[in-house]
Amino acid sequence: MQEKTILVTGASAGFGAAIAAKFADSGWRVVACARRTERLGELTGRFGSGRVHASAFDIRDEAAMRQALDTLPEGFRDIDALVNNAGLALGTAPAQACDLAQWRQMIDTNVTSLVTLTRLLLPKLIDRRGAIVNVSSISGTYPYRGGNVYGATKAFVTQFSLGLRTDLHGTGVRVTNVEPGMAETEFTLVRTGGDRSASDKLYQGAHPITPRDIADTVWWVANLPPHLNVNRIEMMPTSQSAAGLQVARES
Ligand code: 8X3
């Protein structure tokens, strides 16, 4: 059987690194994309450059993205699966106190870059009857304090996944939206600007989702028989649930 190729964004850490490792370990070729060259080197060091191609570029830089796609080496050009994993949350302040630059960075990364890469790869994915897995979040469905623009970007990803499914009708391309809840990665360190104690406190005793859990899920979705499409998967740690509505009463 011909080896398949998967392109994973945000592959230097967390979900992306776990997804890249899972697929590489299971015989797929992996195009691992991220900004941090040295972290991608861990993947190529472990699996070899014939199995993992490290593609280092800033996902917000469209010219660099196009250049990276145009210069994929032989053996990594026929993309069968795209995992749009790169994304971030910045800040936990209420909307009225947020930093606009952080909002723009989240929109640029989580929305603009994701749609750009998807659009660029769609012809190949259609040729290959491939698969797209978008990493969204429960924050796109359930609002929480300080989630504001981060949640809105993930709601975009969720709706974009549904829209892609519709537009790709009849092409054989599968589209899945994965919506994780609390997961322990560098997510909270990034969100808080490196506050290790905030990160540790959030996850302590919660048994959060692990990168391995997400890698196993993406693996399952991507390896289903071609006649099956999982539209969306909402996942939470058992310890997490929605908290409901609030009322501001007159005192
Ligand atoms: C990450 C999940 O619950 O921290 O997107 O927003 S949550």
List the helices and strands and how they pair.
Layout: E1 5-9, H1 14-25, E2 29-34, H2 37-47, E3 52-56, H3 62-70, E4 81-84, H4 100-127, E5 131-135, H5 148-167, E6 174-180, H6 187-191, H7 196-203, H8 211-222, E7 232-235
Parallel strand pairs: 1-2, 1-4, 2-3, 4-5, 5-6, 6-7
Bound molecules: 2-hydroxyethylsulfonic acid.
Explain this structure to me?
It contains eight helices and seven strands; from the N terminus they run E-H-E-H-E-H-E-H-E-H-E-H-H-H-E. It has one domain: NAD(P)-binding Rossmann-like Domain (Rossmann fold, 3-Layer(aba) Sandwich), CATH 3.40.50.720. Helices cover 42% and strands 14% of the residues. A seven-stranded parallel sheet has the order 3-2-1-4-5-6-7, sandwiched between helices. It is α/β, with parallel strands linked by helices and 251 residues long. It has helices at 14-25, 37-47, 62-70, 100-127, 148-167, 187-191, 196-203, 211-222, and strands at 5-9, 29-34, 52-56, 81-84, 131-135, 174-180, 232-235. The structure holds 2-hydroxyethylsulfonic acid. Residues 137-139, 180-182 line the site of 2-hydroxyethylsulfonic acid.
Question: For the report, how would you describe the main beta sheet?
Answer: 7 strands, parallel
CATH C-level class = Alpha Beta
CATH architecture: 3-Layer(aba) Sandwich
Bound small molecules, by name, code or SMILES, are: 2-hydroxyethylsulfonic acid
The domain count comes to 1
Number of helices: 8
Mean pLDDT score, rounded? 97
- Describe the global form: globular
* CATH topology title: Rossmann fold
Structural class: alpha/beta
Order of helices and strands: EHEHEHEHEHEHHHE
Alpha-carbon distance between the termini? 70 Å
Could you tell me the number of beta strands?
A: 7
**CATH-wise, what's the superfamily?**
NAD(P)-binding Rossmann-like Domain
